[in-house]
Design brief:
This protein is an alpha+beta fold and about 120 residues long. The protein contains 4 helices and 3 strands, in the order αββααβα. A 3-stranded mixed β-sheet has the order 1-2-3, sandwiched between helices.
């Protein structure tokens, strides 16, 4: 499978799953608009997709949202299969991603540094 096609399918999957979350089509109260799809990695045969989820809320709430999304994976697959012009829809698995939290921590540490200009 071409690397370019894999990237396009990953991007399309990320957009479709994100739109379901933003439009509140996933009715589980643990999934809200603060949940973000950060990345999608799809297998080379297009049968499995790992969807990485992050949130601006606490880590506990993010883990609950990931649990809810895994529970609703069949519903999500069914809804995105209509827009995904592929023979088979990949099986979705959701995983927590704490990259946003780490990014904020790095920015905080950089801002705390006492850097003085030599002018």
């Amino acid at each position: 499978m071409s690397e370019l096609r894999l990237k396009r399918v990953e991007s399309l999957l990320r957009d479709l799953v994100s739109s379901l979350i933003i439009k509140e089509r996933v009715k589980d109260p643990r999934v809200n608009s603060l949940v973000t799809i950060t990345d999608v990695k799809i297998s080379s045969d297009l049968t499995y997709a790992k969807v990485y989820v992050s949130s601006f809320e606490s880590e506990h709430k993010m883990l609950k949202a990931v649990e809810a999304l895994n529970h609703a994976a069949g519903f999500i697959q069914k809804n995105i299969s209509k827009d995904l012009k592929m023979r088979a829809t990949p099986k979705l698995s959701f995983y927590p991603d704490d990259s946003i939290k780490k990014g904020f921590e790095v920015n905080k540490k950089i801002n705390q540094l006492d850097i003085r200009d030599n002018d």
